[in-house]
Automatic annotation (TrEMBL):
Keywords from the UniProt entry: Membrane, Transmembrane, Transmembrane helix
Name this polypeptide is given: PKAT KLD domain-containing protein
Domain of life (superkingdom): Eukaryota
Annotated TM spans: 53-73
A Pfam family hit: PKAT_KLD
Residue ranges occupied by any PKAT KLD domain in the UniProt entry: 1-23
Amino acid sequence: MVEPSKECQLVLRHFFNSSGVYCINVSMANDVSLAATTAKFTVDMGLSSSSTIVMLLGVLVLILAVGIVGYSYKRLKPYRPLTEDKVATEGPQLSGVRSSSAASMLWKSLNRRGAIDNSPLLQDRPL
């Protein structure tokens, strides 16, 4: 084995951005000879504390967003008053199917008045 000297020293520096397996090939030649070597090494960066904090904050923001959406849906969904069931007042029909056409359902939905106007107390009908 040959001892290294200051005259033959070569320093290579490279900064790795991620973990992985890397190879280095070194070859030296002159007019009469060739020397070559290969080295394989592993760089394990692991999780740094900053990436762990960023990941934790991302998960917390996701949980917070889901909670806000759930709370908003529960609190802000529109109130729908109960209405009379036409099947119960008209009597039983075959297999619970209502006999209204798509056109009449469209007409009813376009001409629908607010829930307050449909109140039986405002229309002098018996309850």
